[in-house]
Every structure is written in structure tokens, then in C-alpha cells.
Amino acid sequence: MSDISTKLSVIPEIEQALVMTKDGAIVDDTSYQAEFLGANGLFLALFSEQAASQFGIGEFKSATVHGTDHHLFLFDSKRHHLCVSAKGSANVSSLDSEIRRVMSVK
Length: 106
Hints:
The protein is α+β, with helices and mostly antiparallel strands. It is built from three helices and five strands; from the N terminus they run αββαβββα.
């Protein structure tokens, strides 16, 4: 389990979290679940970049997909993406805020 996964594990609604490079290589996890989440995260990153370009809003910094079974959060940094899967029963706005709060603690 990566440091970030451990850090985010304090949030009960989080199912899985991973860090991946901009080209989709997952850092610190080789499980099938990580590969599956990474593939979804990479698709969301590519889609978000295209949507941002089409709407002329600049680079994307985060994206969220609301689902009934799961939610998918994607956060961008200079060299990596943080991809987080959460339970579909969780409140998306609260989770987004909580993820950002936990990640901002040094």
C-alpha cells in the first residue's frame, strides 16, 4: 500500500487510491484492481483534457464522475495523477473536500 493510500484510508468511504504517471503507469501497486482503477483514471484524464480544450477553459486540475455504485475522483499534479475510487453511497462534495483536506496535511 502506498503512502497516499495509507493517508487516505482514514476516510471510510474510500475504496482505493493510487498514484499514476501522466502516461498511465501505476506507482506502488501491481494488483488487478489497481490496473482497473488506473485504466479508468487514465480514460478520465484524457477525456477531461479534451473537454477542457474544446471548451477553452485551460488545463484540468480535477475531475469527478458520480456513479450509483462508485465515484471516481482524479486530481492532477505536475508529473502524476491521483486517482481515487469511493463508495457510490458517499456524498461526492463532502468526499472531495475531505480528500483535499487529508492530502494537504504534511
